[in-house]
């Protein structure tokens, strides 16, 4: 997971952008740095929000970097966020997804073989 976050952070060059709060309530928080939208919760209950103050214009395909092939959407009046079981998500434009050469499980196997 950390590898994916760091790869996307680098590709999105988030250090060049200001921090912007996008949505805040007692159990949900979303912020962005450029077109790097982070959605978090402080509990384990399912959270759903329409983040209308979004860094993405309407009609853009965005994806959750943790599930880039199965958790994508086309923006329409913001970003619909569904968090299950305390998960966090980071959304970026599909065209700006960072490629990670090996998923975490594969990377662990490679590291074990190399020892």
Radius of gyration: 15 Å
Mean pLDDT rating: 90
Number of strands: 8
Would you tell me the structural class of the helices and strands?
Answer: alpha+beta
Strand order, sheet with most strands: 1-2-3-8-5-6
Q: What are the low-pLDDT stretches, counting only 5+ consecutive residues below 50?
A: none
* Percentage of residues assigned to helices: 10-25%
Work out the strand percent.
Answer: 25-35%
CATH superfamily: Golgi alpha-mannosidase II
C-alpha geometry = globular
Summarize the biggest pleated sheet: 6 strands, antiparallel
Describe this structure in words.
With about 120 residues, the protein is α+β, with helices and mostly antiparallel strands. It has a single domain, classed as Golgi alpha-mannosidase II (Immunoglobulin-like, Sandwich). The chain has helices at about 1-10, 105-115, and strands at about 20-25, 30-35, 35-40, 45-50, 60-65, 70-75, 80-85, 90-95. Strand 1 and strand 2 form a beta hairpin. The radius of gyration is 15 Å and the shape is globular. The protein starts with a helix and ends with a helix.
């Amino acid at each position: 997971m950390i590898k994916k976050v760091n790869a996307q952070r680098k590709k999105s060059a988030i250090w060049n952008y200001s921090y912007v709060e996008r949505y805040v309530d007692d159990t949900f928080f979303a912020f962005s740095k450029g077109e790097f939208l982070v959605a978090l919760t402080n509990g384990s209950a399912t959270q759903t929000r329409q983040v209308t103050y979004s860094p993405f214009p309407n009609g853009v395909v965005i994806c959750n970097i943790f599930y880039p092939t199965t958790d994508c959407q086309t923006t329409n009046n913001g970003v619909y966020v569904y968090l299950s079981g305390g998960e966090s998500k980071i959304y970026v434009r599909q065209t700006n997804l960072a490629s990670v050469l090996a998923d975490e499980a594969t990377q662990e196997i490679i590291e074990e073989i190399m020892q």
